[in-house]
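#structure-requests
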Amino acid sequence: MEAKDSISSDNYANWFALYNLCQIIGSRKAIHISSVEFGKILNLSQQTASRRINQLEEIGWIQRKIAGKEQIIRITKTGADVILAMYKDLKQILEEILIVGEVTEGMGEGGYYVRIKEYYEQFKKKLGFTPYYGTLNLQFSDLNKELLEENLKNRIPVRIIGFEKEEEKEEGRVKRTYGAVDCYDCIVSRLDDQANKINGAILRIKRTHHKKNIVEILAAPFLRDKLNLKDGERLRIEFPKK
């Protein structure tokens, strides 16, 4: 039986039991656990938990060895393949869920940093486009920010190297440090007009004064004009296929 075929409505209960066993086992090779303990974890009776373990053994997702009142359980390669198949399905679903942010007024912070020559030249060279002297600020709900973060975890950023430079201040010339910036390729479009897509980059600036859940988008055109955006309008964030 293929792993994909195993993730069916007939096997939902078995899959949930396997998932919980994998969580318990973690990086260990096996665990000692009784049916009573496993039942408490699944919120099932001891008899039902025992039947579930028997079923997992019968379909080859686990191996079991009885040791007194306990049993030693190990996840088999077939069981691991089932978990991997489900992970791939969930990962694809996650990547296809709409990630939406609302246009919001910025503080001009993005434009200030983009105009700094040491940053600007790196943006041009490493991102493959000549950026507009400013960024578009998007406000995300907690849910959409979490979706965005989960997507970014699986992507390798383009790193803009930090640097130091001397600047003239009232107290004289001082050396200022500018931190690194991680950039993630993205595609933006109006939620109500997804046919008009523009390539850009999400900037992860280590030092920022933005309030919670604000994300800055860098692109070649002035996005507010190009997409006819006003504060409160919603944009969809997508990512290039790997």
